[in-house]
TrEMBL record:
PANTHER family: ALPHA-GLUCOSIDASE, P-TYPE DOMAIN-CONTAINING PROTEIN. One of its GO terms (molecular function) is alpha-1,4-glucosidase activity. This is alpha-glucosidase. Residues 561-587 are annotated as: Disordered. Keywords: Glycoprotein, Glycosidase, Hydrolase, Signal. Gene3D superfamilies: Glycosidases, glycosyl hydrolase (family 31), Golgi alpha-mannosidase II. One of its GO terms (biological process) is carbohydrate metabolic process. Residues 1-19 form the signal peptide. It catalyses: Hydrolysis of terminal, non-reducing (1->4)-linked alpha-D-glucose residues with release of alpha-D-glucose. Residues 109-253 form the Glycoside hydrolase family 31 N-terminal domain. Residues 335-764 form the Glycoside hydrolase family 31 TIM barrel domain. Its EC number is 3.2.1.20.
């Protein structure tokens, strides 16, 4: 939920069909001051307490020095080679440039072939333990280094690395198979300073790079922009830094191969549909947690970071699948296995006032017969926004117990938000005591100021402290709070928010202000005077003319009133530019200014400041991007203390490489705009690459009001995302799917599909958890030989078997999409009609898609295990099975099913089922001890070209009344199987022949 002070006004690129779009200013900087009234009459933290210095981002600064033009680079000496790589010393090759810090004169280089498909280059200062506290090297317990295989050697590697000292140290990583340099620092100098590290690689013109998050943009990163990484609490600006940090990219290259096997690189966008290509993909992970900036240029990229060391791993693939698996298996870890229920539908909003209202929402879902699995609470349930403490008027424990008992017995679940910050009580008011703070203070687990006092920032409750994850006691403190609170409120998961870590003021702003606590945040909450929501989706002015006009004029008056109270830096305020002091770091205002998206680009704005100090002396500057990661780890282990055998369910906002081991992620505070519905697809696909498949966004949009048409389309689209949740901001119009008849209907129709394919979702997640595969997939990943798919992000695949082509624009009745693979015999079937799609290779095909209909296609060659839709996943799991067999070009198909109890951390009874179809026979092989008692009802086979003769299940003839074949649609349907599978659909192996 939002911690935004200002919703950025921006323009961004959309696929041509959507044109250029800009947000309205309705959510912009509020003019909150200490006079703003609020529900509680309380002190409002002055808005200027969240203002920092006025800096100019280096990339915008005409006076900025290019380190490449002034720095001397390094020279390698003392080189020791082995079959596994080499080590060397890098000495500064000239006079220090000290451009954005102090040059390190001696570095240790280590190049290691870690496995046949993994290579690492590490460069760290030689004198790590000198009196200098400047060097920070990432803790391997927090962010593991890539593992190595004992048989690795240069000879066995897909990759080869060469280096040279002329004119200064540089290296080149080549893929042996193509002879292509995948990473090449030739022609650049290495810059390694205490607050600034820079390396440059050339890339082929028209490269295809993906990943480097978290940010919101198209799937394929543009070659003319800067990607900034610094965890920021901000409402989903386009192209700017966001909540999480994932310094990883996938690079896919397409080649034409001649008869001698010679590879010629081609630009994906100019590829010729009539030709055949091959592709090679590799991954690059930069294991560094500092604020970073990656300058994307037409023929290369420049990577800059504000500290730490160089630890670069290259994953050779050569497919995206292998890259992603390798990255997870060897380096960041595999995604957490989710409970079965988490794939049901989740409903949330900021502004559910009390248990009664929650109960009302749940009963509305029942009344409208819309599936609901989990009801969520935003911060409304808290007593004065304090973690682990319910408001006893609105969310009393006793009533909650009744509510949750009833909810749980209906098979449903409850997940509340927990914020990263902890309220610090007003010392002048004995009745303000807060046990969580008291316990944490006693254990001394909170972040400190440089002078050793508690660091006191501000978040929702007023002035707050922050858990320090470097203190070994903090995880226990956190776990104990979770366990203690769970005894009062039987939660089924935790939603971690504000963990960037956000603070609504610069520095320890509360140190002298505790007697003002509890305090109102330094901005107006949505719905408060000055921040009334008048925003609607694009196209609202067409569908609701009068209402749109009224909202627009109200928004203008509000904006005009706010403008007069704006106290932001004026354009004439001179910029603060800092210059390096030898050997001393300026962590508050580093000489290199990243294009951080908070006011003035100041790292201290809207976050815990860089000088906050950890238990081990480490400054927040060096670990800011890891706070989110560490609280997710602590929360995961806290939930295990509640129940050691239940998979923790956590959705977190700020993540780092590897957070998927513990948590899923939602797209943060988006807005109710069509553009954000589109961006949800590339954002999800990026998180597939980051090893966080449990992803979804605030469906129907968070900030601003939604409308009927957008919510209709979005409820249908999100039904095919792993994490399916509708969430809304405070005071916006309600957007539960039952609010509009048409949305209720559209939602039910998409949920019919989702709930039927829950076993498929679950199987995909199990595979992701055990092997590192992805769930939501880009077309380019499943069809790696088709360059025309390199940038496709307006449609996607769910696993390998389903393709979704959603409508992403208002007022549309059709959508255009491509059907990949047709040239090579791929067949696609319409989900609804079961008929094979008639489309041409590479042609953008128009697909009818009236409001309420989401085009979904089944890929030939797949077998989908399904159950019947129901109102909860528990009920769905108790229904008979069916199989949807979509025959591929040669009449073959295959599929898998994984089952267990759906919640045990280490289930001892599991079932793996393999489906294989060839020569008009489906054979089913089941292995494992999980007893699946539900029978098989029906097998539907798509693409059966000729009328089948006798159909046999096992040895038995299926009576003709249960066999139907449609000569137009070519669908064979075999029913009446329940009595033949009375012991369970997969209690033994069987074959169905037709
Ligand atoms: C960046 O590239 C995109 C896509 O090629 C283009 O539309 C845009 O105009 C470019 N922007 C700048 C600032 O050059
Ligand atoms: C609960 O909240 C609703 C909606 O704000 C309100 O109408 C109702 O009076 C509240 N009920 C109780 C018991 O507080």
């Amino acid at each position: 939920m939002v911690g935004v002070r200002n919703l950025l006004v921006g323009t961004w690129l959309l696929p041509a069909a959507y044109g250029t779009f800009s947000t309205s200013a309705a959510g912009s900087r509020s003019a909150a001051s200490s006079t703003i009234s609020s529900a509680y009459s309380q002190f409002t933290i002055p808005s200027d307490s969240d203002s920092g210095a006025h800096l100019i981002a280096n990339i915008d600064d005409p006076e900025a020095v290019d380190a490449q033009s002034v720095c001397p680079g390094y020279r390698a000496s003392n080189v020791r080679e082995s079959s596994r790589g080499l080590t060397a010393t890098l000495k500064l090759a000239g006079k220090p440039c000290n451009v954005y810090g102090t040059d390190v004169d001696s570095l240790d280089l280590s190049i290691e072939y870690l496995a046949h498909d993994r290579l690492n280059v590490q460069i760290v200062p030689t004198y790590l333990d000198s009196s200098n506290s400047s060097w920070f090297v990432l803790d391997e317990h927090v962010v593991p280094r890539p593992s190595s295989d004992k048989h690795a050697s240069e000879r066995r590697s897909d990759l080869e690395i060469t280096w040279s000292n002329k004119p200064s140290f540089h290296f080149k990583v080549t893929r042996k198979a193509t002879g292509d340099a995948i990473f090449d620092t030739t022609g650049s100098v290495l810059v390694f300073e205490n607050q600034f590290v820079e390396f440059v690689t050339s890339l082929p013109r028209d490269y295809n790079l993906y990943g480097i998050g978290e940010h919101i943009e198209q799937l394929r990163i543009l070659n003319n922009r800067t990607v900034t990484l610094y965890a920021s609490d901000i409402g989903d600006p386009i192209d700017l830094n966001l909540y999480g940090t994932h310094p990883f990219y996938l690079d896919t290259r397409y080649y034409e191969v001649d008869h001698r096997g010679h590879h010629t690189l081609v630009a994906a966008d100019n590829a010729d549909q009539s030709k055949d290509y091959v592709s090679y993909s590799h991954g690059v992970f930069f294991r560094n947690a500092h604020g970073q900036e990656i300058i994307m240029q037409p023929e290369g990229l420049t990577w800059r970071t504000l500290g730490g060391s160089i630890d670069l791993t290259f994953y050779s693939g050569p497919t995206q699948v292998e890259v992603t698996k390798n990255y997870q298996l060897s380096t960041i870890g595999l995604p957490a296995l989710q409970q079965y229920f988490t794939f049901g539908y989740h409903q949330c909003r900021w502004g559910y006032h009390n248990w009664t209202e929650l109960e009302h929402v749940v009963s509305n879902f029942e009344k409208f017969e819309i599936p609901l699995e989990t009801i969520w609470n935003d911060i409304d349930y808290m007593h004065g926004y304090r973690d682990f403490d319910n408001d006893q008027h609105r969310y009393p424990y006793s009533e909650g117990e009744e509510f949750l008992d009833k909810l749980h017995s209906s098979g449903r679940h409850y997940v509340p938000i927990i914020d990263a910050a902890i309220y610090i009580p007003n010392p002048d008011n004995v009745s303000d005591a807060y046990d969580t703070y008291t316990r944490g203070h006693k254990d001394d687990v909170f972040l400190k100021n440089p002078d050793g006092s508690e660091y006191i920032g501000a978040v929702w409750p007023g002035y707050t402290v922050f858990p320090d994850w470097h203190n070994p006691k903090t995880n226990d403190f956190w776990a104990n709070e979770i366990v203690t609170w769970h005894k009062k409120v039987a939660i089924d998961g935790i939603w971690i928010d504000m963990n960037e870590v956000s603070s609504f003021c610069v520095g320890s702003c509360g140190s002298k202000n505790l007697s003002m606590n509890p305090a109102h945040p330094p901005f107006a909450l949505p719905g408060e005077p000055g921040n009334v929501i008048y925003d609607y989706p694009e196209g609202f002015e067409l569908s609701n003319k009068t209402e749109a006009a009224a909202a627009s004029s109200a928004a203008s008056s509000q904006a005009a009133a706010a403008a007069t109270g704006d106290s932001g830096p004026s354009s004439t305020t001179p910029y603060l530019r800092t210059t390096p002091t030898a050997g001393v770091r300026n962590i508050n205002h580093p000489p290199y200014v990243i294009n951080h998206d908070q006011d003035g680009h100041d790292l201290a704005v809207h976050a815990v400041s860089p000088n906050a100090t950890h238990y081990d002396g480490v400054q927040e500057y060096d670990v800011h991007n890891l706070f989110g990661h560490q609280i997710l780890n602590a929360t995961y282990h806290g939930l295990l203390k509640v129940d050691s055998n239940k998979r923790p369910f956590i959705i977190g906002r700020s993540t780092f490489a590897g957070s998927g081991k513990w948590a899923g992620h939602w797209g943060g505070d988006n807005a109710s705009k069509w553009a954000y519905m589109f961006f949800s697809i590339p954002q999800a696909l990026s998180f597939s690459l980051f090893g966080i498949p449990m992803f979804g966004v605030d469906t129907c949009g968070f900030n601003g009001n939604t409308d009927e048409e957008l919510c209709n389309r979005w409820m249908q689209l999100s039904a095919f995302f792993p994490f399916y949740r509708n969430h809304n901001t405070l005071s916006a119009i309600p957007q539960e799917p039952y609010v509009w008849d048409s949305v209720a209907k559209a939602t039910k129709s998409a949920m019919q599909i989702r709930y039927a394919i829950l076993p498929y979702f679950y199987t995909l997640f199990h595979e992701a958890h055990t092997e590192g595969t992805t769930v939501m997939r880009a077309l380019a990943w499943e069809f790696p030989t088709d360059p025309s798919l390199a940038a496709v992000d307006t449609q996607f695949l769910l696993g390998s078997a389903l393709m979704i082509i959603p409508v992403l624009a208002p007022q549309a009745t059709s959508v255009k999409g491509v059907f990949p693979g047709l040239k090579h015999g791929e067949v696609w079937y319409d989900w609804y009609s079961h008929e094979a799609v008639d489309a041409k290779p590479g042609v953008n095909t128009t697909i009818p898609a009236p409001l309420g209909h989401i085009p979904v296609f089944v890929r030939g060659g797949s077998v989908l295990p399904m159950q019947e839709p129901a109102l909860t996943t528990k009920e769905a799991r108790a229904t008979p099975w069916s199989l949807l067999v979509a025959l591929g070009g040669h009449g073959a198909a295959s599929g898998q099913l994984y089952l267990d109890d759906g919640e045990s951390n280490v289930p001892d009874e599991t079932l793996n089922v393999e489906f294989t179809v060839e020569r008009s026979a489906l054979s089913v092989k089941a292995k494992g001890r999980w007893e699946e008692v539900n029978p098989l009802d029906r097998v539907t086979v798509l693409g059966v070209e000729t009328r089948p003769g006798v159909v046999r299940f096992g040895g038995e003839v299926v009576s003709a009344e249960h066999v139907q074949w449609n000569s137009t649609s070519r669908v064979l349907s075999v029913g009446g199987l329940q009595k033949l599978t009375g012991k369970g659909a997969f209690s033994g192996n069987w074959t169905l022949k037709w």
